[in-house]
Write a structure and sequence with these properties.
Blueprint (H helix, E strand, L loop, with lengths): L10 E2 L9 H6 L10 H18 L6 E5 L2 H12 L5 E6 L2 H12 L3 E6 L8 H10 L5 E5 L1 E2 L4 E2 L3 H8 L4 E5 L18 E3 L12 E6 L1 H8 L12 H8 L11 H17 L1 H21 L3 E2 L10 E5 L6 H12 L1 E2 L1 E2 L9 E4 L7 H14 L1
Parallel strand pairs: 1-13, 3-4, 3-5, 5-8, 8-9
Antiparallel strand pairs: 2-10, 6-7, 9-10, 11-12, 12-15, 14-15
Amino acid sequence: MAQVVTATPRLLLGPGPANVDPRVLQALATPVQGHLDPEFLATLDSIRAGLKRLFRTSSDATLAISGTGSSGMETCLVNVVEPGSKVLVGVGGYFGRRICQVAARLGAEVVEVAYEPGQPLDPGKMIDALKAHPDARVVAVVHAETSTGVLQPLEEIGEAVSGTEALFMVDCVTSLGGAPVEVDGWHIDLAYSCSQKCIGMVSGLAPVTFSAKALDVVRRRKSPPSSFYLGIDVLLDYWGEKRIYHHTACSTLYYGLQAALELIFAEGLEARWQRHREVGQLLQQRLQEMGCRLFAAEGYRLPMLTAVLPPEGVDAGAVRRALLEQFNIEVGAGLGELKDKLWRIGLMGYNARRAMVDTICGALAALM
């Protein structure tokens, strides 16, 4: 007799994944369909339209990669970076560093524009770096630095990059669906996200979008992108009118994403941003009242992901483990040098509710 797989129910209040709306879970039980089934292809069209609304872009080069958020990062870079391309990267946390690592593996000349973790990148610093490196192919910034809880202003950098030959690339993995992201309005050429955070689905898909300027860079490459699986040229042949086979897309995940997008627009995008903002501010206020210290600078804090230092004398790692063992609550640890020094508490998508604030703060109070 086959063994039934079981898992302990957890309240997922870390940096992702988050708990999923039951209506999305129901969509994930939709019968499996083939990747070229006419009904499934119509679903891809619906998803593309929804992602264009979510990214606030008119670009038809908007789709969801079969892979996690990191595949979205690689998709953006592998299509526009060639050996020797110069890539400027704002680095003030773990995921800025990840961009550097991926670009370096593609043979890029990486120029790090460093800033202090917990602080935003001064737009003037990146603009000065671009002036010093006018041959840059890509200027890359993390919008929501998940490792530090910082929300990065983008408008000034995007405006500066738009007047050059460089492409403006933005990591929207944690922000998309929970905070304003204006791809066209902020002159963003390449953006990527994931399905399991504020969008409100399980992991496995990575929304991406390419501007006309970015597609022109792809067309003018000396050689095709080194990855066929992540090549935007062949992906668009599958997502577009040609419907040329590319890979065996998982219909289950895409039906879940379609349901998640429908819930977002039924709520209203602006209303969803406001919900995340309100519960995030409430959590941050309650944590400070408990003697905790917020890691990100005031005025630049993510609403959906709070990086927080516990009160003096409290073992961050021990409390995080106790939350899981005693309360079945998952929160994130710090990354890199911040490991076991802080907590990363997420209120994303379905979990962005006042009840979740009460639950996590009550558990923390009991343990501290």
